[in-house]
Task: structure prediction
Amino acid sequence: MSLKNNIPKGPLAEKWTNYKSKMDLVAPNNKRRIEVIVVGTGLAGASAAATLGELGYKVKAYTFHDSPRRAHSIAAQGGINAAKNYQNDGDSIWRLFYDTIKGGDYRSREANVHRLAEVSTDIIDQCVAQGVPFAREYGGLLHNRSFGGVQVSRTFYARGQTGQQLLIGAYQALSRQIANGNVTMYNRHEMLDVVKIDGKARGIITRNLLNGKIESHAAHCVVLATGGYGNVFYLSTNAMGSNVTAAWRAVKRGAYMANPCYTQIHPTCIPVSGEYQSKLTLMSESLRNDGRVWVPKSVKDAQAIQRGEKTGLDIKEEDRDYYLERRYPAFGNLVPRDVASRAAKVACDEGKGVSKTGLAVFLDFASAIQRYGKSAALSQGISDPDAGTVLKLGEKVVEEKYGNLFQMYEKITGENPYKFPMKIYPAVHYTMGGLWVDYNLQTNIPGLFALGEANFSDHGANRLGASALMQGLADGYFVIPYTIGTFLSHEIRTPMISNETPEFKAAEKEVKERIQRLANSQGNQTVESFHRRLGKIMWEYCGMSRNEEGLKKGRQMIRELRKEFYSDVYVPGSDTEYNPELEKAARVADFLEMGEVMMLDALNRNESCGGHFREEFQSQEGEAQRNDADYTYVAAWEWDDENPILHKEDLEFENVELKTRSYK
Amino acid sequence: MKLKLRVWRQKNNQAKGGFEVYNVEADEHMSFLEMMDVLNEELISKKKEPVAFEHDCREGICGTCNMVIDGRPHGPQKGTTVCQLHMRHYKDGDTITIEPWRVSSFPLIKDLVVDRSAYDRIIQAGGYISVNTGQAPDGNAIPIDKEVSSEAFDAATCIGCGACAAACPNGSAMLFTAAKVAHLGKLPQGKVEHKKRVQKMVGQMDKEGFGFCSNVGACEVECPKEISTENIAMLNRSYLGSMLSTND
Ligand SMILES: Cc1cc2nc3c(=O)[nH]c(=O)nc-3n(C[C@H](O)[C@H](O)[C@H](O)COP(=O)(O)OP(=O)(O)OC[C@H]3O[C@@H](n4cnc5c(N)ncnc54)[C@H](O)[C@@H]3O)c2cc1C
Ligand code: SF4
Ligand code: FES
Result:
């Protein structure tokens, strides 16, 4: 099957406007007769469900959470980008478009990314109108800050809780539509299958998590906004419940999984402290504005720190290696995420890690405290401040800027980051890959759409900071409400879909059997232990750097683990009650297949780009080497139990020139 | 460290519940929920039913986790959710009692899990600004005083966890409701619907069976986001005001 991306013709900057004004619409009286299912009520899903409800569609929305307000989107800290150019610093739609394409290492679609940049400005307006309390200047206007890898200030934020505030906004808009009767909300319902009738997506099968009932829900089309799959690595910054099941079930029904190997590993997270660890905590990227990253120059010093005989403070200035500043003088500590993460790995692989496990580097604020302290003293008229005053004033400035992050760090590690340098290590954070979609955000299954982190569409091989929130809300508020019409305008004569057709019955039966099989698993190992082992395989062979041999081995190991899972997992309780272990078992079962496709995709991509680093393809200085001649395409995988099939969508660049990213 | 846990176990809302005692070996670096994970892994490997509890972000922002620890919602540490509580605050030999939120408007589901959908319905009653997608003016069209915006933000940080009602001897949802009323009511965008919003949300709160507020103040003490009871004062003023003016 060839992949038609359905990008409209015409000049880049006019495509979306022209397309929108000419596309087929569904008239208001017809909308009332059309049902839409939205699965997932994070930023992407809640904004979509609310907007489709406002437009008059009959919407049914689903989440496995107890409330839409709990979605993983709530945890986003740093901010959301928009090309408002409120700071008058030369930002524009073109610049945001260009930064995103370049940041993505030239592996995303021009037309999608340009549209994203265009609608970014509307998002801010919408959120402000909903009451999102963005940061403001003294004059009452909106404030911005700058984020990794760009030269303008275009990030809007609400302290360190931007995701929370945006999600609450979308949740409230959704709540209003629920109250108005335009959206029916199904909390604690987990989607376990997509139902196709005559090739079109017409509904889903869900499990009611309170009583285990398997139910069929029908509609004219289905929208998936079910988030990313970072938890395939077990340890990640994602919420514990984030999973791939909805997308994976679509894949099992024929949808394609695009670029699954593109994973974002965030450089500044709190390191793993022990085997019991359940998740990792992000320390915002903004810390790299003032923190300097280093390890000891000598392995001997590092070992002393690892044994607890020395601390960072005992290492003299000349014995420290500020390796980012050394390797990347132009960008220093502010290199993009993928570059910073790999450099930390290199340092730790050389034995220079600075924690008990040897897997941590320092993020040091001592120089910033000195610098801020001195300038604060000056501005207070103290021309010759003593060391104590400088320290006190400097710590105060740092506290104003990063207080909540420092506090969070101390809560988790028990160490005071004002006194001792922070210890950080990279962790899995975001997945650029996802369901393949065309320009309309429709998968290769007609009537099945995918939004937000669940699709692959806009970030190429690496996502820039503050762009996921932008994409989720762009998809939900401003893209899908239009593009869904390209499918639904042909369905206005289709009567309400019944959930009692043979297709629904058959799918229900399959789901029941799958769940019962898991519920009756009486082996000896816990679900959690399998998930942890899968995570270790993924991290070892498909993590920050990959190679052919490891990927082949990893794939084999996953297949064996999958077999072992089905023969020896133990799931307590029954399938007819509230049973979190059973939910987890079903999700881990799907991760055990997803992991294999990730390995395959990484193996296929004989180049290094963005978050995908293949050891065989690097320059002499260890920098990533892309292969534009052979790999400027989207890899879309069709599942097959034996050998998944690769489909390619060529990426055409008509407006930007492909260049090697350099941060030296 | 060795700990003794007294955990509330209850199969479902109809069943009779009671405390079970478990011994668990914890590490001071663990979070409280990781300690619960250890307990559950142990129970499962002995083929016993794990303790059902809810959690998701484990960063103190989603509002999912909820446990009453030694009589206090979210445990002993100020401004901290259960998921952010760490074991270094306990010592070898401690006994810890763990119970669910006990609020009649949050019916029990299993063990420590309760149904907090009543809070969703309070928001649905009017906790929003009525603006459709695409109707918004430019984001900078209405300047908002930094202070005002910051006050609205403080109220908006509520995570909807329900600790306020769990802490309140009357089982009142006043702090939660007041936080939303204040968040929206302080902003110019939200002022238009303010009176109506107050009436509808308070009405829904009563309908859900939450108790009345008698200014005990326990909610503010236990709120992990340290939402101030001053918001309740604002709600009360607005409620009275809205009752005196004509009802539309
Ligand atoms: C710690 C952290 C900080 C971040 N900070 C930023 C930031 O500052 N800026 C930025 O731009 N991005 C940030 N990101 C990334 C960003 O938060 C996410 O990519 C984005 O929020 C994803 O939104 P979503 O709507 O696609 O999915 P989610 O918010 O993950 O929502 C998924 C929804 O789908 C539902 N669901 C899933 N599967 C099923 C199923 N089978 N059945 C029923 N329902 C289902 C869930 O219940 C949920 O409602 C951050 C991410 C993390 C982890
Ligand atoms: S007001 Fe505080 S205690 Fe109540 S729901 Fe909000 S965050 Fe929780
Ligand atoms: S698990 Fe999210 S607040 Fe505790």
